[in-house]
Amino acid sequence: MKLAEALQERADLNRKIEELRRRLGNCILVQEGEEPPEDPAALLDELDAACARLGTLMAGINLTNSRTVVNGETLTELIARKDTLLLKLSAWRDLVYTAGQSASRARGTEIRVRAALKASELQKKVDQMAKEARLVDNLLQETNWKAEIIEA
């Protein structure tokens, strides 16, 4: 199984587990004399099986991410780099937005507010970071479709 397929299955299992939790919540309490809409014991068995499969997949994904090296970095390192880049990018985009706001004065006697940094210079840096994040993500996606999952 390719790593990308394992990641897709992990996402599907997470959705299934959430759905099972809702369904269990809908049938765990019933009015006396009534039957639940579904068998809670069967749903619990399904939940346990989904959680067990998820645990196996997560272990394999983590193992694969830590052992697969691309351009001198493990996938774990690439993921961390991408995540921190996206966090930094978000903060810088907020700065660009704020620096780009024009401050108006109702009267000439009011205090004038100006940006301490130029929005255009900040935007250049944002564009560079966005490109780097895209390239890292592309590399991750490509590798995910090439790498075989390592069974834990």
The main pleated sheet reads as:
2 strands, antiparallel
Q: What series of H and E elements makes up the topology?
A: HHEEHH
- What share of the residues lie within helices? over 70%
Outline, from the CA principal axes? flat
Write down the overall mean pLDDT.
94
Counted up, domains total 1
Strand order of the largest sheet: 1-2
What percent of residues are in strands? under 5%
Number of strands: 2
Spans of at least 5 consecutive residues whose pLDDT stays below 50 are none
Rounded radius of gyration (Å): 25 Å
Supply the number of helical segments: 4
Describe the oligomeric state of these chains in a short phrase.
single chain
What's the end-to-end separation, in Å? 13 Å
What structural category arises from helix and sheet content? mainly alpha
